Amino acid sequence: MRTQILVAGLAALVVSGCFSSAPTASALAYTDPPATSGWRLVRDPSSTASRLVLGLVGPAGTLTRGVGVNLQAPRGVRFGTFDGGLAVEDGGVYDLRSLDDGPEEPLAIAAGLKKGNVLSAGVFQKDRRRPAKDSGATLLRVALEVDPSTCPAAGSSLTLTVLRAAAIPEDIGLTTDQPVALARKLALTELDVAVGTLVAN
Amino acid sequence: MTPRTFRPALLALVVAAGALAGAAGAAPVGSTRLPPDALAAIRAQQPERAALARDTLLDARASLGLDADAGFEQRSVFTDHEGRTVVRFRQTHRGHTVFSGEAIVHVEAGGATRSLTRGVKAMAMPSGEPRIGAEQAVAIALRRLAPRGPLARPPEAELVVFPSRLTGGVVTALDRKTARPILDRDLSVWARPPAVPTVWAWKVDTLVMNRLDGHRELSYVVDAATGAILRIDTGIASSSPATGTGHSYYRGDVSLSTTQLDDGTYELVSPLHGSLPNPFVLAQGIDWTGMTTTYSWFHTDTYVEEFDKYPAKADDDWGNGQAMPYPWDLANFMPLLDYSADGLAAWASGALAPIGETAAVDAHFGLCATWDFYRQVMGRDGIDDAGTSTFAVVHSIQGGQFLADNAFWSNDVFGMFFGDGTAQVFGDYGFMNAVTEIDITGHELTHGVTFGTAGLHYSGESGGLNEATSDMIGKMVQAWTDAGASGSTVPEFPAGDLKYWEIGLHSVPDGRPPLRFMYKPSKDLQSADEWFDGVEQIDVHFSSGVGNRFYFFLAAGASSDPSSETYSAFLPLGMAGIGNEKAAHIWYRTLTEYLTPDSDYADAREASMQAAADLHGPGSAEQLAVERAWAAVNVGSPPGEPPPVRVRIPVVNPPGTFLYDNAVPEGVLEKVQIFPTRTLVRVTATVENTTDQHVRIEAPIDTYAGWAVGVVNPDGSWTTPWFPYYADLVNVRVRSEADPRQYAKANLLLMELDGNTDGEMDVFDLAATAMEWGLPSVVHQPVATSGGGAVDDWDVVFWTQAFQNGFPASAGR
């Protein structure tokens, strides 16, 4: 008989309940930040009553080759996953595949949960021969849900924080550049992302 | 798609088949050699007996879970001394080979049949038609192969049915220069297994032999629907009637089987060892029949490695007993080449001088002796039991490496290559002398026998069995040759002298240890003395330790003295050996009549016990000895004892990830788990066959440096170490507290994720990887690289998997 002793031990700790008599939240309501010409986190139409999907949208006309974000969620909110188990979904703007590799090639898309309930998620083009893309569309999506184990109170305002966001710029140098010039261009462009308001209901 | 045709069943045997139906499954007891005339009569009937064997399988299709599209194509057939005809079949579906699908049928002397169908793949066959053609599949394979020099021949593509569970994964290999386990990028694949049990796939075989690429024989399995490369195998197994006189390096003066030509000159070709021409050479319009020993060179303009026979000469006296010294250009780390007028560059003049013939003498003598061993002791006509000729290439330039410290069997060319060894120039600072000692020549030729019989895959536990088989038979060849190379029995080595059980004892400079120690494999600090969960992760030359020690115990016995090197804690009372003769025949029968391509050590135990029962009877002392010898290497229990405690480290990569999906459950390829450095991870383990689930996790060891890297806490939590470079392999061992002899080991790949060196591990490091992807290192010295060279897809897959394993989104931190 195979027994996963350590995994079983951890599972036992998950048994819990809400002891407060106050109503607890089961859904998240999000109001988009004001429309600007900058970078924004907006509610995605694929959101449901129990699952809030946010899309990262950039300014139209700005060309990029990939984007990433470190997004901190407050206590009471957890990050969800998409088909395939990843906690980020490609918006379909970038060409993630290279020009000449096979169908099994690995893609530069990843998401991981770091200490402090920080989701680090990103999607990037890796083949410099692919052209940069217009950022004025949903570039990536992340999902948020109420974490029932933390018993968030209904009606409470919550704060989402973008700790860092950055994009691969259009100009990442040419292979004909001098090495020093090329290395200088291999740098990310820092982004200022506007975040809306979040309420647990 | 055009189904292949099968030859019609032989009606003449219908009566016999019907008469034998009731006897199917019966096993003979005891081994009886038939008189020569009776055996000849049975062998004359071999084609009809093979047809009976195939009909037996076809009749059994329904009970095997196969439909009417299933077929069986004969792969090999031979009849042993007892008159048992052993027929191996490839499984087919609609005329196409089912990858790794195999069945064996024994037709006993009296006609009874026994079908061994463990290797049959009885899963749902693919539907529909292939979406990509052979040309496209070849193009995909060649893109992955990326040869820098010319191909030795056009790639060959065959449409096959591929079981999805055999999809490859990450493979490690031994770096022979550093003895460090490294990732084998030639053989690793990153495709996820198809979601259905089987798919149509193209098997594309490639061959390159030139200085730029070295000698590579890679076979690619390309998904015929998606074009994904599902698996990569190598065809190379590495390590190492006139009568002339040879002055050998290892065995003094020896008699050589050579050929006297019509003009009275002599060739280093033995017409007594091989009756059919070598197929590789024949394809080039040249007939090499008989054992042919050759020398190699390369073209400096094309960098193609070539080889040819030693030129005929007036006398039949070869070699001078000395190793060939090389004029060496130390400044350029190259031999001082002899540029001849025809544009060939080689040390040809050296190779052709008497001192250069010495390596040829050793190889020729050892291979002829091995051939004789198979013929006289095992009743086998050479490598394929059909007399197909092989050849040896000495002074071999392997991958453009002069003085190669290696020998190998090449299944593609049906021949063997022997390097000269670095000790020829660097003395005690080199690794090996010319790699032509007799246990090594026996080892290499036996790889050919293994490929043609059991066909053991050269990776995982089956690869360890493949290597062990060559060591076992190589030693038996040595024992037989030491005693005069005559007779049909295998003599014993001098009792108590363990040096006779060391591989390549004289192939290394004085003071250096031999290649392997069969009686205690771990003396090389790498090999396994016993089976453990994870043994399939180590290089096949080290996982062979399990099989090698089993064989030593079986033949020579195990001590009950705990201080002895032949003591096993798994069999504390020790055991008596049954001797070389019986052990050799049991193993030869196991190899040729029972093992299949994906057999593991548990299968080998079962098979060898059956082989012992065949030869000596069920419950015989010999069968019990086999059971004990396996128990002594922790494969099964001693007779009458309960199953041993088992510790296993489960794959912790979450479902859907590359490494999880590529973990092959039956150990054909390797499982490597991957984590970030400097991150809290958790080691878990399972314990079987005991109620005491407690385990002790030992300090992880850096496989390169050899020292511990941190401590795992009792709850399994472990902060992975920091490396000043980007990736390294770390070994973790978990031991049962109920039975401390039992443990499991896992190789972990630790990946430094901070590719942009900002002190954080987040997706912006992946962004750095993406930005540097494909940039030639001559243009830009990459930062986010795991392998030291240009950033490529390996960096992408390692980074993403390590990140997701180290920071799983479902962890809820």
Q: Which features characterize this protein?
A:
heterodimer; A: 201 residues; mainly beta; Immunoglobulin-like; six-stranded mixed β-sheet; six-stranded antiparallel β-sheet; 15 strands; elongated; disordered N terminus; B: 813 residues; alpha+beta; Nuclear Transport Factor 2, Chain: A; Elastase, domain 1; 5 domains; nine-stranded mixed β-sheet; 38 strands; 22% strand
Question: What does the model show?
Answer:
The complex is a heterodimer of chains A (201) and B (813). With 201 residues, chain A is mainly β. Chain A has one domain: Sandwich (Immunoglobulin-like). Chain A is 7% helix and 37% strand. Chain A has two helices and 15 strands. In chain A, strands 2, 3, 5, 6, 10 and 14 form a six-stranded mixed β-sheet that branches. In chain A, strands 4, 7, 8, 9, 12 and 13 form a six-stranded antiparallel β-sheet that branches. A three-stranded antiparallel β-sheet of chain A has the order 1-15-11, with no helix packed on it. The radius of gyration of chain A is 20 Å and the shape is elongated. The N terminus of chain A is likely disordered. With 813 residues, chain B is an alpha+beta fold. Chain B folds into five domains: 106 residues, Nuclear Transport Factor 2, Chain: A (Roll); 101 residues, no CATH class; 192 residues, Roll (Elastase, domain 1); 179 residues, Neutral Protease, domain 2; 164 residues, Immunoglobulin-like (Sandwich). Chain B contains 17 helices and 38 strands. In chain B, the strands form eleven sheets. In chain B, strands 13, 17, 18, 19, 23, 24, 25, 26 and 27 form a nine-stranded mixed β-sheet that branches. In chain B, strands 31, 34, 35, 37 and 38 form a five-stranded mixed β-sheet that branches. In chain B, strand 18 and strand 19 form a beta hairpin. In chain B, helix 7 crosses helix 9, helix 10 crosses helix 12 and helix 11 runs antiparallel to helix 14. Chain B is globular and about 75 Å long. Chain B starts with 13 loop residues before the first helix and ends in a 7-residue tail after the last helix. The relative contact order of chain B is 0.08. At the A-B interface, helix 1, strand 4, strand 7, strand 8 and strand 12 of A face helix 4, strand 33, helix 16 and helix 17 of B.
